[in-house]
């Protein structure tokens, strides 16, 4: 029968005629080229790094192929497919080729595709691979949206090819990425220190403003749609880092894909304990009853800010009373020539409110987009104030600040102005420097009801 005929006959027995037809049509073996083909046990995830070796005895180190049957039951929903291969790879779903890296040699490259599965049930999925010369590696995964595909590297700089991989389910209702390694490695038998990881997900994100937050021990970087948006690649005990980003719909894609975005989180552990936590949450939700501070390395409030505080932060602050003296508000911000914006939503009773600030240097205060205090000039900390009448309900307070040179501080207080209400026919009061009983000496209101029967005639008030 010959080598090729025996190979095909064995494949028919092990994986069936349907896969064999795909093999023949794909060019894994033909009359002009032949090589051994590795056919492992059926499985949805394909994670192999053979280095300079081969899959098994009888397979050479170079010039071999592999076929992976990832068919099975898949729920209705959105999936992403990612491969990492040296050399060639292609993936087909129900006979449709969605990844094709077959016509050229690719040394350790990733390929990605989206599968919007609108039908629950059995699906035929196949990954084909070919190794030419040198190192050999193939990773192929079908991952639900919001789950994370993790590649692990036995060094702290993501060098070389991954040596382990797994799919991680999202954590909680916020669908965070979370791995707490403690003093262990990422998978059983893996090294406990000096390793790195790259996490990938595809997710749907409506257009808007978001806070992207990490909590990592040690270094971390985050990419959104291939753009670096957070970079803190340093040794550190567990530390929170966050930034605010504007996310828009993608252009040049089908309408059903315009809100699909790729997120990549890179992480490394140096020594001892290791942990990585990532979240991306709407900005509006983070300012509910908690200040969110945005720090900019300029005095024009421009660029992507560094974020502190927020509803889901480990560094919440409920009062705006910050004194940096001659220092800096953030490790990535200079001690002079910086600016900041602070935002908070709060439920307030109806009434007249007074806002008082003390700052060095410039400051502006808004309540529901109404400018209440405007002192955008250098200042030595003299107090400023403004009043605004509010209806009962939720209101947004926004404070903008800049620091020129020297010391830097900001303090904000606001309160409802108390009101005395009395029914008096005649209003004759002189409190001098005092006040009505139970009221402060300054900033109070009086409402006097002088309603009564008046005879017809002329009056002066």
Automatic annotation (TrEMBL):
Regions crossing the membrane: none
SMART domains: PA14
Pfam families xref list: PA14
Record domain PA14: where: 143-294, 286-428
InterPro entries in the record: PA14/GLEYA, PA14_dom
Keywords: Signal
Leader sequence residues: 1-31
Stated name of the protein: PA14 domain-containing protein
Species: Bacillus yapensis
